[in-house]
Amino acid sequence: MSQFVKQKILVVDDDENICDLIRMYFENEGFAVTTANDGLAAIDIFKNSTPDMVVLDIMMPGADGWQVCREIRKISQAPVIMLSAKGEVFDKVLALELGADDYMVKPVRYPELLARAEAIIRRAQQFISEHVREKLTVPLVARHVDVSPSYLTALFHKNLQISPGEYIRRTKLQESKQMIRENNLNFTEIAAELQYSTVHHFSRQFKEKFGITPTEYAKSVR
Question: Which residues of 95-104 are buried (b: 16+ CB within 10 A; e: fewer)?
Answer without folding.
Answer: bbebbbbbbb
